[in-house]
Amino acid sequence: MVTVQKRPGGAGVRRLRNTSLQLKIVMAVTGAISVLYLVLHMIGNLKIFLGRSELDTYAEFLRTVGEPALPYSTLLWIIRVVLTVSIVLHIVSATILARRAARARPVRYAATPKTPGSYAARTMRWGGVIILLFIVYHILDLTTGTLNPNGVGGAVYDNVVSDFAPSRWYVTLFYTLAVVAVGFHLRHGIWSALQTLGHSSGARRHAQKVTSTVIAVVLTVGFLAVPFAVTFGLVA
Length: 236
Ligand code: HEM
What we know:
Layout: H1 10-45, H2 52-64, H3 74-104, H4 118-143, H5 156-163, H6 169-197, H7 202-231
Helix pairs in contact: 1-3, 1-6, 1-7, 4-6, 6-7
């Protein structure tokens, strides 16, 4: 006679494991959309080094592309909606997964395990909250102009230059801390996403680590180049 040994939980546990994988895929895909936005945003920002007219013309292009077939700002609003939906799904999935992980481990570890990357993993939640608060400030600063000393709609170059003026070094410092938080979040997030979407073993694991670090460093340096160039007088 053959006895089939049932694992505790059976179908329920399996369903939970399946939805956890689905949630991780949602996190990976929505994270990838945000990374794509950041790459395009960083490249757009770097146009400041080509001069006022290059940057402002590009910002105007983002609003007028598709006209007159499409209404003013159509592309921008599509980007805003896709990005907002992605960020909301990313946060909801992260919250559900974190709650599940906490429920599966009701007794806290006596000591936090020192596994590679565990520091980044633990800071993902707080990093995410800091990034969200930064985005709210950043939109009030450079999109609506509410908190910007210049704050003129369409005058992107002048808004950025007055924002990071040498006398406003504390704004540059704040942006630096936020962008570094973005960098750490990206490094660990991209690495996790690559593991979720692909296989992970030996050499591939190393390649995934290198890829995530390179993308995070390029984005961090690319974003910080603009506030630093303004504060140190290279762009005025
Ligand atoms: C540190 C250097 C950065 C600079 C100089 C910068 C500059 C700008 C400017 C000028 C705008 C307004 C663009 C326009 O109205 O056409 C903008 C919008 C925006 N930025 Fe940044 N940005 C930086 C970093 C970031 C980072 C790190 C993030 C995300 C984590 C981000 C997310 C956004 C978002 C979501 C918008 C709103 C786009 C919209 O709805 O129009 N930015 N940024």
